[in-house]
Amino acid sequence: MLCVYCGKDRPDEIVTKEHVIPQALGGALTPTNPFLLDVCKPCNSACGRWVDGPFIRSFLVHNARAQLAYEYVDPTADPVLPVLFMGRLKGWNDNDIVCDAWIGPTGDPIYHFHRPYQEPTWVGRPPTSIDKYDPGVVFFAFVGTNPEWPPIVNRSIVEAFPGAAFHCLNSSPPDTAPPWPPVPAERLGQLTWVRSVLGTRQEVQVPHNLHFGDRFLVKLALGFATRFLGSAFAGSDRATDLRNALWAKTPYEMEKLEVGGTGFVSVPGLDKLADVLNWEGCHLFYLLQRGGSTAFVANIYGKYPGIIRVGDLTPDMPQIGRDGMVWLVAPGLRAFAGPMDFITFLAEKDAPTAAHLLPLRQRMQMARKMPPFHVGSTG
């Protein structure tokens, strides 16, 4: 088998199924998954660590993922929700320890003290398990008073900071968690500082990287084109160019390869495109052919569009038509709609009973079960 990610012929025993759309972005689709790709095990592992991981843990994508997760909460399913990352607090001054501010599902303040990570643009712990990192210490407080929420908040915070020590700043609601341990003497300085800033406005430093999505866009283009254009694309010169860009050591090496593409940051003209390609609560993926060439468009969470040329159309490649193939993926539900052509998508996106989108629309409407944060509140 030719692995499209490394370009090498691989024996069957090391071939695995790779999620072209990462599972953390809703790519573990049910009951069927049209976005699985046969790749070699080393490439599958490397993509998770060095391509998918940094993209998922970038500031913009992480918080978009967290915000969407709050819209689809079924408290009976023991959900674990991502916590919102606010940034590194400037008011905490320590040469060896930094403090990150986070917000829990009901507005719960979270303070995470730890030694600085090597890659400052990642949100939270490094996305690769081979890097050693300091799990640190977490101080947090429950805010929501609705008894349905504290167990969700507790699970979400504990799973967001694996290996950390935890201290609760207020009383844990009954049956939520075991009693939190007392704060040891060496952490009293941190506790005092947290209590002094709790509820006050604080300045934060937000991690940012203009190239955070370049490598991920290349991987999506390779995966989608291989999945739907087949071996004719996988063995093409353009696939080789994209493959070299995928494993380039730096963003500047990627630029020298001239594979093109916009990335996922703000690009002139893309704001209008993002509005056209937006369907609330979904990613959109679009493979199209124009003038003898094939392009790929992704709009992540309806907010971050990117475009890249896949390559020239050859006689042995499948014809996907002038209006291309569009898929919608609802990450909160692990569900999708498509493929449909682009004209059908435009015609149906604002039509409540349109056939192609109706099943997905109904599932999304039924899933909005988020309970109110406070007792006696309606929202």
How does this model look, in words?
The protein has 379 residues and is an alpha+beta fold. The protein has 2 domains: 12-56 and 210-365, no CATH class; 79-205, no CATH class. It is 29% helix and 20% strand. The protein has 11 helices and 13 strands. A 6-stranded mixed sheet has the order 7-6-5-4-3-8. It has a 5-stranded antiparallel sheet with strand order 11-10-9-12-13, sandwiched between helices. Strand 6 (137-140), helix 3 and strand 7 form a beta-alpha-beta unit. Helix 7 packs antiparallel against helix 8.
The order of strands across the largest sheet is 7-6-5-4-3-8
H-E string: EEHHEEEEHEHEHHHHHEEEEEHH
Number of domains: 2
Specify the oligomeric state: single chain
Helix and strand composition category:
alpha+beta
Tell me the helix content.
Answer: 25-40%
Mean pLDDT: 88
What is the radius of gyration? 23 Å
Strand composition percent: 15-25%
